[in-house]
Recover the amino acids of this structure.
């Protein structure tokens, strides 16, 4: 059964927790197993942290939008902010030896690790990240490079 | 559930028992303050027991890395004990499993610190 819902949230840490909780609930209902639900929830949390912290920089005048769409065993999640935008070329590889001991910079990497497909696009203003996860056995597996 | 911590001493090693979530704005700040406080009091051999840590996000991972480098730069040693499967998997995919000294037996972990 198709389902679509979206939330417009304040740029706060409470919103990050809220997005994570909703993701856990929706992923569970969509039929993912416990481990996959945990990965999806963490991906949404990381995306929401990026939106609140790096995108909107806690600006009370800027909102974070989190959308969920579940259709035939495929969960599509979008998280968008109204910030200054994300320059993917300047996101360092957290696995590079010179970056291993850096305190930050692992969020996008974890999202890509946990989801089947990840797309990032610039908005005017802001950034939108789309994360797709297929219930196992219901769609082809594989990752897609972000554009 | 936010992070909780308690500290005990075993054979000159400071064991920090952590529980709950180490995430942005919650446990990460607590962990940072805790490690700095221990170092400030001269406790340089620290074993973080993560057995009851239910969740770590990328900010929490960053705080563990920061704690590790802070203690090392202060001339001490910081090791991890009792990783849950989720935390173990996270450290593995971020390639930090080889950076940290990770133990699963407390007595052996205590003995492993330099005398």
């Amino acid at each position: 059964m198709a389902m679509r819902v979206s939330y417009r949230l304040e740029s706060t840490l409470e919103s990050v927790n809220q997005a994570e909780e909703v993701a856990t609930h929706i992923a569970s209902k969509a039929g993912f197993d416990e481990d996959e639900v945990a990965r999806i929830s963490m991906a949404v949390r990381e995306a929401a942290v990026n939106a609140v912290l790096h995108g909107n920089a806690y600006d009370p005048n800027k909102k974070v939008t989190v959308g969920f769409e579940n259709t035939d065993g495929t969960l599509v999640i979008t998280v968008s902010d109204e910030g200054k935008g994300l320059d993917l070329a300047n996101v360092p590889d957290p696995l590079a030896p010179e970056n291993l001991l850096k305190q930050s910079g692992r969020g996008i990497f974890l999202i890509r690790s946990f989801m089947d497909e990840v797309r990032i696009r610039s908005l005017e203003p802001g950034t939108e990240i789309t994360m797709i996860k297929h219930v196992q056995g219901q769609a082809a597996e594989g990752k897609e490079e972000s554009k | 559930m936010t992070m909780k911590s308690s500290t005990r001493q075993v054979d000159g090693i400071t064991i920090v028992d952590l529980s709950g979530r180490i995430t942005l704005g919650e446990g990460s700040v607590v962990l940072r303050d805790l490690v700095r406080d221990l170092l400030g009091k001269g406790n340089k051999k620290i074993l973080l027991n993560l057995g009851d840590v239910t969740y770590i996000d990328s900010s929490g991972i960053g705080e563990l890395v920061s704690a590790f480098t802070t203690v090392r730069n202060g001339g001490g040693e910081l090791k991890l004990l009792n990783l849950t499967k989720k935390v173990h998997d996270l450290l593995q995919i971020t390639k930090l499993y080889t950076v940290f000294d990770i133990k699963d037996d407390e007595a052996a972990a205590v003995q492993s610190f330099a005398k």
